[in-house]
Amino acid sequence: MTTFINIHALISHPSSMMNRDDSGLQKTAILGGETRARISSQCLKRAIRTSDIYKSSVDEVSIRTNKFDELLERCIEMMPDNKPELIESVLLNMGSKVKSDKDKETKKVTRTFDAVQPYSIGAIREMVNHVEAGEDVKKLKKAEKIPTLDVSLSGRMDASCTERNVEAAMSVAHSLTTHAANIEVDWFTACDDLSEQGSGHIGSTEFSSGVFYRYATINLDLLSESTGKSKAELKGTINMIVRCFAQVSPSAKQKTFAAYNVADFIMITQADQPLSLANAFRTAVKNDGKVMETSITKLVEHYEKTVDGFDLNSVAKAFDMTGTLESDEVSQVSKIKELSFS
């Protein structure tokens, strides 16, 4: 039976706007008839992938790009012992389609892959070594490749070379506030020190504050299969992802709002199916001074009722900074590093 690790975090952010839409406005979603502030899964995943916690634990963070020439330059720089012509040949024969565009004015030719994809310098180096050892470069497309941990977690989809596709072991939800969000407008000025009036620019930006529910699930069997590691060997990886969900925040507008916060509550469950607890907040939590505490109570109660009502095979552990948690079904730990399963 497949094992899933479900991660549930409640994190409170004061005035902030970490994720904007194409109009520069605060991203929102409607749940239970109420407007909630939202942080997209793509935004949160990028913040996690670029965080120091993630980088210090993952052997190699992949380079996500569609720029062929820039990737080639990076590979040549990081692989000085290999011939540039060989590296270029490997990149051209990995399977991903490469197209060329010529600038009408400068006549400069630039090459790009047909889509933004994650590329591993380590994997490219390995393919170069195989070709140097005598493997036909034309057969690289079908060569078996063990993806990096980074790619195993987030996946890879290459329509032009299905052999490179990797199913993501981790699924991440859009984060929503547990309560109705009041989107406010901040009028700001850029002061001009050499102007008599003082302001050189006047503008506005939206912002909000709230308790966000973050959810992700990791298919532990799939992650084990992709990486070639046992479930026991992945224990540290799971805890690293848990720490990221509890401690990492998107960087947008942080120079203006500095909403650097950690989760007040984080719970992980080991179960035989993925299970979001977002419906605990379908009825919005009352906007008062106990939003976090009420959110914790509703989250845990919803978990207990769901597990009991559906006879789910699930065990839970939680780290609670507020002292709110009271449950016979959820064991508590005193430090976040203890949030893992044997």
Relevant terms:
alpha+beta; 13 strands; flat; ten-stranded mixed β-sheet
Structural commentary:
There is one protein chain. α3 (68-78) packs across α4 and α4 (84-92) crosses α5. Helices cover 28% and strands 28% of the residues. The protein folds into two domains: 4-60 and 171-338, no CATH class; 63-146. The strands form two sheets. Strands 1, 2, 3, 7, 8, 9, 10, 11, 12 and 13 form a ten-stranded mixed sheet that branches. A three-stranded antiparallel sheet has the order 4-6-5. The protein has helices at 41-49, 52-57, 68-78, 84-92, 121-132, 149-154, 220-227, 235-247, 254-257, 291-309, and strands spanning 4-16, 28-31, 34-39, 63-67, 98-102, 109-119, 170-172, 175-177, 184-191, 199-219, 265-271, 314-320, 330-332.
